[in-house]
């Protein structure tokens, strides 16, 4: 019993140190995209667009910027130094696709919020004029 416990403890200690648990390039790219993409910025951009364009576009249009992923400065990412080009390409593709998903999601939240608030204000204004 003691031998089994000691073996399990040693396994939990040494397996991560051997690099067996290393992330795939796709997982690394997605993880870094979640760290780098500002959700607040994309929400605000969507919110402003939702307020401004709710009358013109119906509030359901996303900005073109949300479809353009940010550039990935591969030279600045220390985890990619010395990795094969195939690994780096997979990382960049995963980073870009995940950043577009995050940008799209948060700008869409902002657009819906901006459109809803604008509609509520207009509705309140129109109700106020009925009296």
Describe this structure in words.
- The structure is a single chain.
- The protein is an all-alpha fold and about 130 residues long.
- The chain has one domain (about 25-130).
- It has 4 helices and no strands.
- The protein has helices at about 1-20, 25-35, 40-55, 85-130.
- The protein starts with a helix and ends with a helix.
Q: Which strand-content bin applies to the residues?
A: under 5%
User: N- to C-terminal separation?
Assistant: 82 Å
Instruction: Pick out the low-confidence regions.
Output: none
**Global geometry:** elongated
Total helix count? 4
Largest sheet: none
Helix and strand element order? HHHH
Give the helix level as a range of percent: 55-70%
Structural class comes to mainly alpha
Rg, Å, rounded:
23 Å
Count the beta strands. 0
| Nearest-integer average pLDDT | 77
Number of domains: 1
Q: What would a concise description of this structure say?
A:
This protein is mostly helical and about 130 residues long.
Which tags fit this structure?
single chain, 131 residues, mainly alpha, 4 helices, 0% strand
SSE layout and pairing:
Elements: H1 2-18, H2 25-36, H3 39-53, H4 85-130
Helix pairs in contact: 2-4, 3-4
């Amino acid at each position: 019993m003691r031998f089994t416990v000691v073996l399990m403890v040693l396994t939990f200690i040494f397996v991560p140190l051997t690099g067996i648990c290393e992330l795939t390039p796709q997982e690394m790219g997605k993880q870094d995209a979640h760290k780098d993409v500002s959700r607040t910025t994309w929400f605000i951009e969507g919110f402003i667009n939702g307020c401004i364009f709710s009358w013109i576009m119906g509030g359901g249009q996303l900005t073109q910027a949300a479809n353009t992923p940010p550039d990935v400065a591969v030279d600045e990412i220390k985890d990619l130094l010395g990795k094969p080009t195939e690994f780096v390409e997979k990382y960049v593709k995963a980073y870009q696709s995940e950043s577009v998903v995050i940008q799209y999601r948060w700008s869409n939240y902002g657009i819906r919020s901006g459109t809803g608030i604008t509609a509520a204000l207009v509705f309140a204004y129109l109700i106020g004029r009925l009296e």
